[in-house]
Amino acid sequence: MDLLLRLYEDSKRGGTCTACGAALDWYETLKGNNMPMNAGAVPRKSETHPETGRVVVFFAADDTHWTTCPQRDLFRSPKAAS
Ligand SMILES: [Zn+2]
After folding, report:
1. In the chain, which ranges are continuous DSSP H helix?
2. CA of 55 to the centre of ligand 1 (A)
3. 19: pLDDT strictly greater than 90
4. pLDDT tier for residue 24 given thresholds of 50, 70 and 90
5. 25 in a domain, yes or no?
6. Would residue 53 count as lying in a domain?
7. Which residue, 26, 27, 61, 69, has most beta carbons within 10 Å?
């Protein structure tokens, strides 16, 4: 999958997954949502946002912890699971 997520580099902060305990790096998306990336995931590229001047890093969507967490079913809404 080549879908890339755009995240603000300066929003990075460490954390752990509440479901499986894995180390995470939380980032803020351009829309202001929080996105858990697997710790150690490497951005594919980066650029400066033309309006905010903040550095935006591009991560593969497959590097989100939601994709790889062994407990990822817990993140899905009950409606989607039915
Ligand atoms: Zn997890």
Report:
1. 65-68, 78-81
2. 27
3. yes
4. very high
5. yes
6. yes
7. 27
Per residue in 33-76, pLDDT (tens digit) is 999 999 999 999 999 999 999 999 999 999 999 999 999 887 76
Number of structural domains (the chain) is: 1
CA 32–ligand 1 middle distance (angstroms): 21
67 Cα: distance to centroid of ligand 1 (angstroms): 9
Whether residue 82 is contained in a domain is answered as no
Q: What is the pLDDT of residue 82?
A: 40
**Residue 66 alpha carbon to ligand 1 centre in Å:** 7
> CB-based contacts of 43: which residues, under 8 Å, 6+ apart?
9, 57, 58, 59
Ligand 1 centre from 28 Cα, in Å? 18
Backbone Cα Rg of the chain: 13
Dist. CA 31 → ligand 1 center (Å): 23
Distance 50 CA to ligand 1 centre (A): 34
Q: Does 67 reside within a domain?
A: yes
